[in-house]
TrEMBL record:
It comes from the Bacteria. Gene3D superfamilies: NAD(P)-binding Rossmann-like Domain (3.40.50.720). The keyword Oxidoreductase applies. It comes from Polyangium jinanense. GO terms for molecular function: oxidoreductase activity. Keywords: Oxidoreductase. InterPro entries: KR_dom, NAD(P)-bd_dom_sf, Peroxisomal_Beta-Oxidation, Sc_DH/Rdtase_CS, SDR_fam. Residues 7-199 form the Ketoreductase domain. Belongs to the short-chain dehydrogenases/reductases (SDR) family. Signal peptide: none annotated. This is SDR family NAD(P)-dependent oxidoreductase.
Amino acid sequence: MGLLDGKVAIITGAGGGIGRAEALLFAREGAKVVVNDVGGARDGTGGSDAMARKVVDEITAAGGVAVANFDSVATAAGAAGIVKTALDAFGRIDVLVNNAGILRDKTLLKLDEEQWDSVVAVHLKGTFLVTQAVVKQLVAQGGGGRIVNTTSVSGMLGNFGQSNYAAAKAGIYGFTRTAAIELQKHRITVNALAPVAKTRMTEDLPMFQAGMESLTPEHIAPAALFLGSELCGDRTGHVLAVTGSQVFAYKVVQSAGKFKDEGAAWTAQEIADHWDAITKV
Ligand code: NAI
């Protein structure tokens, strides 16, 4: 008995890295998997069918069921193509993991418009487009289903040289919260994963050169499985983070704050004077 027996799962960007590990695990747990990947370079340039096909071959060789799709998540036509592949092959959809991503790191002063637009297009717009196309199908099927988005510590806390990526990933957080609220009535949970793992996206970071080999995509995939399976229950709108053997949650907190006399506005000077009390959590 697998946790995803009889389910159909779409995983975007599943031709390598974390998405590949998720696809292999989902298939082992009984899901029929759509392995989507444009097969480009880390910065999103180029493309080939080879990456997605290879993962489909791995799944099939292990006795699982999978089909490849090579559409870009960053266009509405691509999102429609991904849904069409799932329906043509398997007739329904149950789980979507929005995992596809690219990197174009530059400090803010050097970042150009193209580097901004391309990163936001794949991560943030791609998450919106594929989610919307899939949710329309989930609702047409009578409701129920699970969406797993992929955010990042960069989006939650910020990171040097990643204003484009961090903005896209923080946007995915806001999108996740709102979609979770809106889709509750259709019994669709929407959560996000914040992974850290050694992949081609991160392998040149100093932390991954210092022997942190335990930070693998295989450490991340079970958390995606949790959020994509019935084990997740009715939990929705959460950010589950995995870094190697550590699992934790990111939460936005609101401080208790401080009230002035009934109806009175705070002056800028008063905010400065009471900063610690206002911001204390
Ligand atoms: P990766 O580069 O191995 O995987 C990303 C995949 O997305 C690639 O196979 C790529 O071809 C595919 N892709 C890119 N643009 C696409 C498009 N338009 N349509 C369809 N597929 C496309 O990198 P990794 O590390 O596996 O990243 C997976 C996700 O996890 C990304 O969203 C990334 O931002 C996120 N993440 C990864 C972290 C890490 O430590 N590796 C940290 C935080 C977040």
